[in-house]
Every structure is written in structure tokens, then in C-alpha cells.
Amino acid sequence: MFDALQLGLVWFFVALGYVESLKYYTEKPPYIESCRIKEPDFTNCSTHSIQGFLNEVIKGIPEIEESFGPIDPMKQDQLTFTQADSDVASISANLTDLVIRGFGKMIVKESKVNIKDFSWQDKIYLPRMRLDGKYKMVGSVLIIPLHGSGNIFIEIDDLDILLKAKTRLYEKGGYTFYNVTDVSVKVKVGHVRTYLDNLFNGHSKEVEQTTNQFFNDNWRDFFETFRPLIVGTLERTMLDLLRKMFSVMPANFFVEDIPNSLLLYGRKSRLIA
Ligand SMILES: *[C@@H]1O[C@H](CO)[C@@H](O)[C@H](O)[C@H]1NC(C)=O
Ligand SMILES: *[C@@H]1O[C@H](CO)[C@@H](O)[C@H](O)[C@H]1NC(C)=O
Ligand SMILES: *[C@@H]1O[C@H](CO)[C@@H](O)[C@H](O)[C@H]1NC(C)=O
After folding, report:
1. What is the 3-state secondary structure of 230-257?
2. How far is it, in rounded angstroms, from Cα 207 to Cα 146?
3. Which ligand approaches the C-alpha of residue 52 most closely?
4. For the chain, which residues make up each domain, given as ranges?
5. 45 C-alpha to ligand 1 centroid (Å)
6. Average pLDDT of 85-89?
7. Any signal peptide, and if so, which residues (predicted)?
């Protein structure tokens, strides 16, 4: 199957003192459904189309995996996170050696495209997302002063993501592409479990256990402390992934009647002028 698809790939070389190579599809692979934004069923069609693409990306499209790495489990080197002056927490935490599981089960519930500026609004659902890593932390969570380092996991059930993406259309090889320029997300969670070992630098295993029990009993408040970490991780990850996905696949394959960017922005700037 990949062999057939490879035929549709072209190599595009740009020499600017260094050589940069960009590969992209010039034939629509069968797993992508084409939709017309001017048709009334566009959003439903687009939802299936994006899910189809995502499913292949999760299975592994070499051109994307090469630069992004595997999607599930996904590795991240480091996350730094500080939160000051909130009601529930004042914390500085560094997470390293992170492994994030769950992106392989992403479900696109809705994928809307704005007909004016071609920005997106997507509803994505993950049955479960789990983050494992090492933490180093100073501060307080739910008024409990913490000082320690060790292993952490945060496991989220029923993660609903509302993703908004800004895009800028551009032309490449006779096709129109999406440049995904910004991603913002809002999340809702069904349930959260966690464990931080070696809290208080291992001074008391018993206090460590009761503290973790307390976090799990009060998981909504615990999650609020870590919400910026989860949201930030999702925003960075999705921006990176979507940029790579849509730099190899022309926007024309998803939205057959997408306007040429020169016409779209040309017309707009003439309207403004
Ligand atoms: C949504 O789209 C899918 C595939 O394109 C199709 O099978 C389904 O019937 C559509 N549903 C509605 C409600 O139009
Ligand atoms: C986290 O890392 C930053 C910069 O690398 C550092 O300034 C901060 O003190 C670290 N926090 C903890 C709790 O180790
Ligand atoms: C995409 O947008 C970024 C800025 O967000 C810009 O640096 C980059 O050159 C753009 N890429 C293309 C191919 O237009």
C-alpha cells in the first residue's frame, strides 16, 4: 500500500546555502474523503475526512513519523511548569523523561472549517490519556506543601478537547496547503488518577500515601493545578502534529473547493484597501 502511495510523492529541493527537502503528496490517497465546503453536509464529511487521515497517521505515515516520531506512546523530553498565586496551588515543577499514551485513540467528533478564514474548530475525544515521567517539584498543591522528586503519573479518563487552529493558506507545486499557525485548546475531563512517589523526599512513606490518596479523592482540584500543564502539552503537541500532517497533504484533498490562497488573500486585502 505504501509503495503505491510513494508514487504520488514528489521530492522538492530548495537550495539556500543548505539543502532542505520537503516531500508531499500529489495524488489523493484513498483514505482521505474529499468534501466541498459549500455543501450543507460539509462538517460531517470533514469530520470523517480528518478522522481517516488521523487513523493513517497513527498507524504511521513515514513522511510524518520521520519528523514527529511515534504518536502512541509519544516521548517528550521535558516540561517546565510554574503556577503562582492561584487559589489551590503555588508550584514549580519540572517533568522529564515523559511518555504520553493515548493519542492513538483520538476520535474526531466534529471538524468545522470557517469558510471565511479557513480556521478550524475541532472536537476531539480521547478515552484515556496517561502521562508517565519523573518530576521535581517545589511548592504547594491543595494547600499541602511539597518538596520532592521521583516518578509521577497522571491518568485522565474521558478527555474532551475543543481545539481551535488558525491557518494560513499557501501554494506549493500547484496545490493549496494549510499552514497551521496557532493551536489553542480547552479541555474537559471525566476523571483523573495520579501518583507521585517520593513526595517529601521519601521522609515518610505513610504521609506520601495519604497525600496521594488526598489528591485522588480531590482529583478535580488536583487537576486544576495541573490544567495548564495538560493544556500546554496538548497545544504544543497538536500544533506540531497538525503542522506536519498538513505540510505533506494538500488542503485541496480535504476541501475540493478551497480557494487559491492568492485569490483568497488578494481579494481580502483589496477589500480592506
Ligand atoms: C456523515 O458522513 C458519513 C461519511 O461521509 C456518512 O456515511 C454518513 O451517512 C453521514 N451522516 C450524516 C448524518 O449525514
Ligand atoms: C525547573 O527548571 C527551571 C529551569 O530549568 C529552574 O529554574 C527551576 O528551579 C526548576 N524547578 C525545580 C522545582 O526544580
Ligand atoms: C507558516 O507560518 C509560519 C509562522 O507562523 C512561518 O514562519 C512559515 O514560514 C510559514 N510556512 C509557510 C510554508 O508558509
Report:
1. HHHHHHHHHHHHHHHHHHHCCHHHCECC
2. 11
3. 1
4. 24-264
5. 7
6. 65
7. 1-21
